[in-house]
Specification:
single chain; 54 residues; alpha+beta; three-stranded antiparallel beta sheet; 3 strands; globular
């Protein structure tokens, strides 16, 4: 499932801005925690993933 940002669905490169869920697991958060991704802030955003870092 994709939780797409309501106000701004795409960034300047036409990439979808969303949180990805697989079987109720936040895949974005999992990838950051396991070192496969880094958090990138595009403001304003309804997604605050600062708690995902670490």
């Amino acid at each position: 499932m994709l939780d797409v940002y309501d106000e701004k669905q795409y960034d300047s490169y036409y990439r979808i801005l969303a949180v990805v869920y697989v079987n109720e697991t936040n895949l974005n958060e999992k990838m950051v925690k396991e070192g496969y991704a880094e958090v990138m802030y595009i403001l304003p955003s309804e997604f605050d993933c600062r708690e995902c870092e670490g």
